[in-house]
Design goal:
This protein has 270 residues and is mostly helical. The protein is built from twelve helices and no strands. The longest helix is centred in the middle third of the chain and has 24 residues. The model has no long low-confidence stretch (mean pLDDT 89).
Length: 270
């Protein structure tokens, strides 16, 4: 059991589960727009997410943002290095439009962590902005990049999908921010810090309802997929209502993060 727990912790700590969630969201976009399976963008996002999140999570513990001391973190870093090589292989197979937008997201992620040359502050230091940066990067990565790489025009459905995906990310981030109330510094001004747990849960519930309503605004969107998204909205609400600041780290990091995978699998099965 101890070995299984260590493997599971590594799975979470190395951001494989986050990467799987991103991969699932990209696949949802492909299904929603009737695209074939795009291996290049799928794996570029999967392995790129592992690298990006590893950098965001552990760079503050590393000398010059790269060199870690603990053996466990070195193992995660080595794994991230392998993923970087694989990600680079797929990234350079993207078309130029996708590569350009993806490059902008990489720069944003870099500035999110690393201070500017003239100050010790970074984007993460700006009050209350973290959740919106995550929402923006995930929605662009999992909706716009797959469409661009398949030369799909940005029509009305695409804009609705981006907005819906942004709402989805903001909503599922709420359990994470409630969990982090005990550790987040007050100056971060996260939603639960500003609104309180009770009101932020109400906000999250309204966002989940809005997520479901947006599904109705997609032109020629399959009815079976609308039913799936209704179910996803229900899962979002449950995940928010059961969130507390004393929940196990696995609640948000595994169960809430798994909603994206459940959403994708449900679309495959209907």
């Amino acid at each position: 059991m101890k070995l299984l727990k260590q493997i599971f912790d590594f799975y979470l700590d190395s951001s494989i589960h986050v990467a799987l969630a991103v991969y699932a969201l990209a696949r949802i976009t492909m299904l929603s727009f009737g695209l074939g399976y795009d291996e290049v963008i799928s794996y570029a996002l999967f392995f790129g997410t592992i690298v990006e999140y590893g950098f965001i999570k552990y760079s503050s513990l590393a000398k010059h943002y790269l060199f870690v001391d603990k053996k466990y973190l070195k193992t995660i870093q080595f794994f991230g290095g392998i993923c970087f090589i694989i990600a680079a292989y797929y990234v350079f197979r993207l078309n130029y439009k996708t590569l350009f937008v993806a490059g902008g997201l990489v720069v944003l992620a870099f500035l999110y962590v690393v201070p500017a040359l003239t100050t010790k502050r970074n984007i993460r230091s700006l009050k209350g902005i973290k959740i919106y940066i995550v929402g923006l990067t995930w929605s662009v990565s999992t909706v716009i990049l797959p469409l661009l790489n398949n030369d799909m025009p940005m029509q009305a459905n695409a804009y609705v999908e981006v907005l819906q995906r942004f709402i989805y990310i903001i909503a599922i981030m709420i359990p994470f921010e409630i969990r982090d109330l005990n550790t987040d510094e007050a100056w971060l001004r996260t939603l639960p810090q500003v609104l309180g747990v009770r009101w932020v849960k109400l906000l999250g519930t309204l966002l989940a309802v809005f997520f479901c309503v947006l599904s109705l605004f997609k032109y020629n969107f399959a009815y079976k997929y609308q039913l799936v998204e209704l179910g996803v909205g229900g899962l979002i609400i449950l995940s928010i209502l059961f969130a507390t600041k004393n929940r196990s780290k696995y609640y948000a990091s595994f169960f809430v993060e798994s909603i994206s995978v459940v959403w994708w699998l449900a679309m495959l099965l209907v």
